[in-house]
Amino acid sequence: MKMIFRILLLINLISCVSGTFVVNVTQTSYQAEENHNITLQWTFTTKPDTSSNSLYIYCSLFTDHKTPVLFHLYDCVEVSESQDQQFSGRVNCDKDVLREGQIRLQLSRLRTEDSGLYRCVVSTDYGRSSGECQLNVSAAADHPEPQRPTVSPEPESQGWIGLYVGLGLTAAAVLLVTLCFALRRCFT
What is the pTM of this model? Predict the structure, then answer.
C-alpha cells in the first residue's frame, strides 16, 4: 500500500510540475454526522477539443487498515464491480458535470467507518493527477425527545367551585337587572 501511495504521489507531483493537468478538491476537509449525506467534490482540467471518452476516475478511501474503492469510472463507464462493499448502494456520481471537469460524489447514510482520507485519481489523454480530502464522520448525537410540561389535572372539587361561582355571578347579574327595571317602573 505504501508503494502505491508513493507512486500516486510521484505521478501527482510530476503532473503539478508540468502544469498541464491538475485535480483539485473543492474543500480539503469535511465534517458530518452519522446517517447524514454528504457530497465530496473535485475539479480537474478539461480541454474542450479532446474527447471525454478517455476519462478514467478512481476514487478510494485511505485508512490504516484498507483502501476501499468508493467510485471507479473507466472510459466514461462506471465499473460498479470494483466498488467496495462498504459503499455499495450509497454512492451516486453526478455524471452530467464530468464534461465540465467536476466530480461530485454523494455519499449517503454516512457511517463512522467512512471517516478517512479520500483520494480521486483522474487520468485522461492529456494528463493524470489526483486530489484528496479528509472526511470525519462523528457518531449520531442522541437527541432526547423534548419534554412537555406536565399539567396536573384539576381536582374535581375545583371544577365544581368554578361552575358554582359562574352560575352565582350570572344569577346576581340577572337579579340586578330585574331590580333596576322594577325600580325604574316604580318611579315612573
Answer: 0.63
